[in-house]
Amino acid sequence: MKLISEVKKNAVYDYLYSAIRKGEIKAGDTLTERDLAERLGVSRTPIREAIRKLEEQGVVIHEPHKGAKVITLSAEKAAELYEVRELLEGLAVRKLAQIHTAEMMEELTGYIERAEKKALAKEIEKLSDINSAFHLALARLSGNIYLEVIMNMLQTQINLLMTTSLSYSGRPLENIEEHKKILEAIKLGDGDFAESVAKYHVRQAKIHAMKKIAEGGM
Amino acid sequence: MKLISEVKKNAVYDYLYSAIRKGEIKAGDTLTERDLAERLGVSRTPIREAIRKLEEQGVVIHEPHKGAKVITLSAEKAAELYEVRELLEGLAVRKLAQIHTAEMMEELTGYIERAEKKALAKEIEKLSDINSAFHLALARLSGNIYLEVIMNMLQTQINLLMTTSLSYSGRPLENIEEHKKILEAIKLGDGDFAESVAKYHVRQAKIHAMKKIAEGGM
DNA sequence: ATCTACAAGATGGTATACCATTTAGGAACT
DNA sequence: AGTTCCTAAATGGTATACCATCTTGTAGAT
């Protein structure tokens, strides 16, 4: 039985991460414990824990006695991000091609269906969340726990990038089509092929993101 | 000016991680905050932070109201670990082949020299630490910040594996020879070749580790 | 004998106060 | 005017107490 009021530690984390994604807290801003505690009406303890978690995920960097600064995602960092993600997503999909079951495919298809609805409804923030969930699911279902943990971190960063820098602008339909192609490749059961399709997808996403960053004001 | 007494949070983390590596705290054991606080003579606060960090690194898993349990590294987990590491170390070395400078090579060579000394002196625990530092340096020098963060986590896990399961038993000399080959490949500047040498090294380490796990009592 | 319910202990989460360290700004001196 | 030193404020770290929740064992009922 899940209660409404989650533990504050998580609530604070969610609030801060969301505020950063929405741009209410900008890159370079510093989070100070006492400040936030007062503003959110809680003690420093849950704030500390939330900031630790943000640090863990690479969202802020803590400089002693200067506060935790929200990272700035430069074009270089974005390139590094996608570089690693290409490898890992390739591996996840390769493994999935070898071990996939009907239930797995059903779950994955579910994300795509929901994504299509959100895309049509232009609910871009929710679309972004669903796409995140899709990629995380690929990692989780691959059965490699490390892939899952790492992809979670990378996805957190990518969401940050998408929202703060790219203002959610995506290529929603092409993106979804590529996701479908990944699922088809998994169904074929050919690890090499599935891996190459997944890598292609990540490269496309990277190209798009880099172009946006180059245009937009970073 | 660095003082002797580091912050307790880190001291507690170091103590716990070390105790786990030494087997004083075994896989499956639970860490409870009050318990440790009393035994180490500090308050729960630094204990909490240390446990969080252990959790972050995947060393313990926190189950609500049951304490933080030290993970059990099964053969499957070890295989997953090396699977991911092969990809990432391959990427790191590929990049290094393209961007390496004299200073970088000097640093890397330094690790190998120190490793040889420790190997000859049979100081196996210190050897293990130096090898960790070598691999972490590869990731760091590659210039991809994500590689560095991720490799740090993987290395933490591998150290755990080496000590708890493999009792430091290694193939120290072969290992060092392979490290030398990696450096030579980097110097040649051929990314593809360097990557393949690095991947080969990780696969060898994996084979050795898996064999040991199969023999030894896990 | 088994099941239920409840109470006590264990565990985690939060609030608060205090201490340590660092930073930053200004006063005093040259 | 520039430099040095010192102090106050900011920030982080730690200790402690209290509260909420969950687990577990046991007493009582059936």
From TrEMBL, chains A, B:
CDD domains hit by this protein: WHTH_GntR
Pfam families per UniProt: FCD, GntR
Name listed for the protein in its UniProt record: DNA-binding GntR family transcriptional regulator
Keyword Metal-binding: no
PANTHER family from the UniProt entry: GLUCONATE OPERON TRANSCRIPTIONAL REPRESSOR, TRANSCRIPTIONAL REGULATOR, GNTR FAMILY
Swiss-Prot/TrEMBL keywords: DNA-binding, Transcription, Transcription regulation
HTH gntR-type domain span: 6-73
Gene Ontology molecular-function annotations: DNA binding
Source organism of the structure: Planomicrobium stackebrandtii
